[in-house]
Write a structure and sequence with these properties.
The protein is mainly alpha-helical. It has a two-stranded antiparallel ribbon with strand order 1-2. The longest helix is centred in the middle third of the chain and has 20 residues.
Length: about 100
């Protein structure tokens, strides 16, 4: 779903390998601590001592892995900012005005 939605809105989509150990690697130093159970939400890197939120650290590693995949293909790693599509921003009003408050009888 993400791939076709990215294409629809002119966004870049990069696939990384399923076996990429994004939750096992420190995003600061690259040290690998190995698998952890899902209930472990915070960890301290054994190599550099940095304290990580597991989800945020994994997200940073996914972004780094996607950048490596793009640079390996020869594409630009950091493309310029792309403004959002018109249909992608704001709330459509359909020509109706919005009235806020309590109606007076």
């Amino acid at each position: 779903m993400l791939e076709y939605k990215a294409a629809r809105y002119g966004r870049a989509f990069h696939r990384i390998g399923r076996s990429e150990p994004t939750s096992q690697v420190c995003s600061v130093c690259g040290g690998k601590d190995g698998p952890k159970p899902l209930y472990v939400r915070e960890r301290t890197c054994g190599a550099c001592g940095t304290v990580h939120d597991q989800a945020i650290d994994s997200a940073v590693n996914v972004v780094k892995a996607a950048g490596r995949a793009v640079s390996a293909c020869g594409a630009r790693v950091r493309p310029g900012l792309v403004p959002p599509q018109r249909g992608e921003t704001g709330t459509p009003r359909d020509g109706q005005t919005t009235v806020v408050g309590i109606p007076v009888p």
